Amino acid sequence: MTQGGILVAWLMLIGVALFLVLAALKRIKPKPSSSRRESVLSWLRNYYWVAMLITGVGLGIGATTFYLAEVGYSVAGIVNALRAEAWRDTPNAEDLRNLATATAVLLAALAAATTMIFQLVKVWIAERQTKTSEQSHITDQINKAVEGLGTEKNVKTDDGVETTRPNIEVRVGAIYALERIAQDSPRDHVQIMEILTAYVRENAPAASALKFQQDDFPVATNHPDLRWVDTDGWSPERIRRYLTIYWETKGRAHRKSGGKAEDNTFGQHACHSRRWAAGLRPRADIQSAMQVIARRSAKQIQAERSDPRYSRMGYQIDLRDCNLQGIKLTEPAFEGANFAGSYLDGAHLQEANLNHANLEYSHFRSADLRFSELNFANFESADLEVADLEGVIMKAVDLKNANLGGTDLTGATLDGSDLDWTDITSSDLSHTSLVMCVFKRIRMYQPARFTDANLAGGAFFSCDLSSASLTEKQLQSTYGAFDTKLGRDSEKSSQTGIETSLAFPKHWLSFPLRDYNYFFEQWRLWLDHPDTYIPHENES
């Protein structure tokens, strides 16, 4: 074989090998934190047969380059030598025998080389069969586990009546079997999450949740303390809450005038709520299913986000309209999850990841969400009364019409959040960051604590702050309009012992304002140029 032919064959070998290597490496998708060595080892465990094919093809090309071409030349030389020996008058028998042996060896080598491609095909077919067998086994395991989720047992009640109840032990085992399958088979992870979330929705519906009852107060709309309130469309729960706050306010006024304090105060109401929430317990199988969902690995969560069968946001955990009261989870991962209309009263969700979660109309009464991340979450019309939100980070959160009565937000971060018709009665906002928050018609029937709260850049639109103890420094860092009612200066009052009313900052609009769009425009102008801004009506 000529030198040029060998060079061409070598170039072909290198090109084919590079193509196969690059095509195989495209299958590797390492995590950002994983090393290249770990990624390659992981790939080899899953696609070892690809490496075998690459090696086989490379050896075949090498054999073709260095041996098979030479075989052709050698065979031709041997045939010519045989012819020459045959035409001799006295052929050399030893030479003929050697030539025949060499011919047989070369032909055997040629046959072995030609069968290499068929051996590689057999490797590929065997791998396909193995994969098919594995997938069939996994499917059987999933089907068996799903059957376990519906297992029931017959039990006899105290009066001797036989009834059917869920077999909790078998169901819990099926839940953990599904978790194992999700870990071993990434392609089935999303489907298993769909199975588990559907199981929770069907076996713990919101209709089964216990409702908090404030039994000390009537709920009839003809109650004398509601005669001047428009209660059309109010639910009994809302009337109870209103009466609780009303009687607390009345009790404070009665005590201030030297009379006997009312027994039913908001503080007692909060204690009652906490005691009630402490007794809430989920069913064992629901607790197990939620634990499996909550402790998904980072790799599994990434698989959910990149699943092409769903929206551009990928697969999102769907736990709408569920009864999850009293659930206990440690550092649960629920980013982007949908909990709309669900009851999580008394839930323990410390350090949870609920960024971008949909929590509208949800119930978190007396729940523990300390140090959780709730950025960009939707809490519209959610009930967070007496919840513990100490140290949470919830930037740009929608709190429209939410109930934060008695909520502990000490040290929390609510920068850029929208508090529209939000109830912050008796909320503790001490040391809370409320930068750029919008307070629009907030409700505060009992004073909320703003001690050392950062209100820089915030806006107050049609708010009643008469019961709030703010400082002049806090107020000067905000923007508002004349129809916002101010209270006393807590800092000066504490220093002098005399109640000192807060004065309207000069940069606030000095007339009642109902057009929120105009107010929003002026607020933006003030934010852009706080030192030179002059309210529109004061311009000369």
Give structural notes.
It is a single chain. With 540 residues, the protein is mainly alpha-helical. The chain has helices at residues 3-25, 36-46, 48-87, 93-114, 116-149, 168-184, 189-203, 236-256, 266-278, 284-294, 298-305, 472-476, 490-496, 516-528, and strands at 152-156, 162-166, 418-420, 438-440, 459-461, 479-480. It has a four-stranded parallel β-sheet, with helices on one face. The protein contains 14 helices and six strands. It is elongated. The longest helix is centred in the first third of the chain and has 40 residues, at 48-87.
Question: Quick recap of the structure?
Answer:
This protein is mostly helical. The chain has 14 helices and 6 strands. A 4-stranded parallel sheet has the order 3-4-5-6, covered by helices on one side. Strands 1-2 form a two-stranded antiparallel sheet.
Rg, alpha carbons:
38 Å
Instruction: Count the E strands.
Output: 6
Strand order of the largest sheet: 3-4-5-6
Q: Give unreliable regions as ranges.
A: 28-34, 216-220, 251-264
Strand content: under 5%
Biggest sheet overview: 4 strands, parallel
Mean pLDDT: 79
- Structural class, please? mainly alpha
- Total count of helical runs of at least 4 residues: 14
Helix content: 40-55%
> How far apart are the first and last residues' alpha carbons, in Å?
99 Å
**Series of secondary-structure elements, N-terminal to C-terminal:** HHHHHEEHHHHHHEEEHEHH
Principal-axes shape call: elongated
